[in-house]
Design brief:
By secondary structure, this protein is an alpha+beta fold. Helix content is about 55%, strand content about 20%. The strands form four sheets. It has a five-stranded mixed beta sheet with strand order 2-1-5-4-3, sandwiched between helices. Strands 7-6-10-9-8 form a five-stranded antiparallel beta sheet, with helices on both faces.
Length: about 600
């Protein structure tokens, strides 16, 4: 694979030796090759995309129509509930015919109550007419459009269908009736419901008939039809046409009012499917309407969807070819500008490779190549700066190494001298001088640690103990020292001389600042979640709040608790990471607590 790539690169370099030719070739391949491919696949992609858009839009319109129709039909059912669930109506319809037939006053009162109730229901915009079928013995049965004779109605086909149904309500296909003015006929959809006897649920005392204008359904489903040749319709379980968005379109498809049984009930779904009707392919969706035996059906000719896709494909092809020519022309004009600046930058880089570190490249343009110029100049400046910095760092490192050597020589010399003083004091019998010399000698011996940077916590605590012992000799045992670190914890390793400067601060700036000039220093330690936590507490004067927050900052001075504390904090962070170091807590007049956090690493 590598060999093939090398051969290909060599071939391209020979055929296209300049970057200008390579760029023009790249533009040709990247512009015209996709055009050829897009010409082949655009039809399928655009057709599919447009079909998805049409289906999505049709879905939204269909679902909205389904919701509106369900809402309006539910409004009629709720209107029937008002009658069905009314206790007064139940009582009126359940009256004993032998008694009520001769009581015209009671019948009149009942008719007034029913008139008011039915009129209030009729004021709903969805209710065109409401009718209550009652016993034919009542004088108001059949007297106006609000009532009808129950016995007479039981002789109709509607009653036969209602009797056979077990549903709560029964819906009927549209029929023409006279409007309120008895001048014109209008098409209405009817829903019937029995008013059952509350005491004998198997019997009924009346029938509610509510009618809605079929035009309201037609208005909804017409808005759901979003294509020029598509159609939306409603049919019932008896394959009767309830309403359609366009009767002429239905005939053009090849379906008449009696030919809508082309779909089985199993076809009801929430998605579109393909259906062949009269030798033509259609996209169809069927959805049942709640609390009815109706189905909402949308039929969209598949050829209409594809036709739009073909038109879009042609437009896209023309636009892509036009844009390709324009883009290639512009690319040809820009190539000279781009390659010229790249050549200049390349020449400048060669100059820098030759050792000219001041060969900066400048461009008055802010595009990507201009940014490349700026990045190159910035990189060259950084290189020059780093060279100077490396030179300065080298000098500083040498100086630091020399100072470190001097610092190590001085404690060695001092340690040997203290050992000599100890022996001389013993010869002279001066035990105090000998004790001071031994403590100071052990202090510096632990400080040296044979040149190693890491010590055991046990040695570090011993180092602190010697320091406190020396200070007590100086200040007449005014300092109490208490170490509460378990032996098991003392086996972990720590950087040397991280506790003594903290204890020194506690004595000098805490205990000795008190009026009594005496106090106690306590060191505790434990391991928590893989970290070694050490706390150094004193009951000294404490630290003022405005000084406390500056102790670990670079602005800290020797007067505000010294450079040593900041040095320890920085050493721990450099060695272990930013999550480790020192933390101060102090209350003025009560004392200070310093927490040292570092990884718990056992000595091997």
């Amino acid at each position: 694979m590598v060999v093939v790539k090398q051969l290909m690169d060599s071939f391209i370099e020979k055929i296209f030796p300049t970057i200008k030719v390579k760029v023009l070739l790249a533009f040709f391949v990247l512009i015209f090759t996709p055009l050829v491919i897009l010409t082949t696949i655009t039809y399928n992609i655009v057709s599919t995309s447009y079909e998805e858009q049409i289906v999505h839009a049709a879905d939204q319109s269909f679902d909205q129509a389904h919701q509106f129709i369900t809402y309006k039909l539910d409004a009629l059912i709720r209107s029937s509930d008002i009658v069905y669930l009314n206790n007064e109506i139940q009582a009126i319809l359940a009256r004993d015919m032998a008694v009520i037939e001769g009581d015209m006053i009671q019948q009149y009162k009942d008719s007034l109550y029913l008139d008011n109730l039915l009129y209030s229901i009729k004021t709903s915009e969805d209710v065109f007419r409401i009718k209550l079928y009652v016993s034919d013995y009542l004088f108001y049965a059949g007297e106006n459009e609000n009532y009808g004779g129950l016995y007479e109605f039981m002789l109709t086909d509607k009653y036969d269908i209602l009797s056979e149904s077990t549903d709560k309500v029964v819906w009927f296909k549209p029929e023409n009736v006279l409007d309120a003015g008895y001048e014109n006929e209008v098409s209405v959809v009817t829903v019937l419901r029995k008013v059952n006897n509350v005491e004998k649920i198997s019997e009924f005392n009346g029938i509610i008939e509510i009618q809605m204008l079929e035009a309201r359904l037609e208005e909804i489903i017409t808005k759901a039809d979003i294509t020029s040749r598509g159609v939306v319709l409603i049919r019932n379980s008896r394959d009767e046409l309830i309403s359609t968005s366009d009767t002429n379109k239905l005939k053009e498809i090849g379906l008449g009012a009696l030919d809508i049984s082309f779909l089985d009930s199993d076809a009801i779904s929430h998605t579109w499917f393909q259906q062949e009707i009269s030798d033509e392919l259609y996209s169809v969706r069927v959805e049942s309407i709640d609390d009815t035996d109706w189905e909402l059906i949308a039929i969209v000719p598949y050829s209409e969807i594809l036709e739009q896709g073909r038109q879009i494909r042609l437009i896209m092809m023309v636009l892509l070819l036009l844009l390709g020519v324009i883009a290639y022309t512009i690319a040809y004009l820009l190539t000279e500008n781009v390659t010229g600046r790249i050549r200049h930058l390349s020449d400048t880089m060669v100059d820098v490779q030759g050792g000219n570190m001041d060969a900066y490249a400048y461009s008055n343009q802010s595009d990507e190549i201009g940014q490349l110029y700026a990045s190159f100049n910035y990189m060259l400046k950084r290189i020059n700066h780093l060279v100077e910095q490396q030179y300065e760092d080298g000098k500083n490192i040498k100086s630091a190494e020399l100072k470190a050597l001097q610092a190590q020589i001085n404690p060695h010399f001092l340690y040997n001298t203290l050992d000599l003083i100890n022996w001389k004091a013993m010869e002279q019998g001066d035990k105090d001088i000998a004790q001071i010399a031994r403590a100071l000698a052990k202090f510096y011996k632990l400080s040296l640690n044979k040149g190693r940077d890491m010590v055991s916590l046990e040695d570090e605590l011993s180092h602190v103990e010697q320091y406190v012992k020396i200070q007590n000799m100086r200040f007449d045992n005014r300092i109490q020292y208490e170490c509460l670190v378990d032996k098991g914890v003392q086996g972990y390793q720590v950087p040397k001389i991280i506790l003594q400067p903290i204890v020194e601060n506690a004595i000098v700036h805490g205990i000795l600042k008190k009026r009594q000039q005496d106090g106690c220093i306590t060191i505790e330690g434990h391991v928590e979640k893989g970290d070694l936590i050490l706390t150094i507490s004193d009951d000294g004067l404490g630290i003022e709040p405005d000084i406390l927050h500056t102790i670990l900052l670079d602005t800290a001075t020797r007067e505000s608790h010294g450079y040593g504390i900041k040095n320890i904090h920085d050493r721990l962070k450099l060695h272990y990471g930013n999550e480790y170091g020192l933390a101060y807590q102090s209350e003025l007049g009560k004392g200070t607590t310093v927490t040292v956090k570092l990884p718990a690493v056992a000595i091997l």
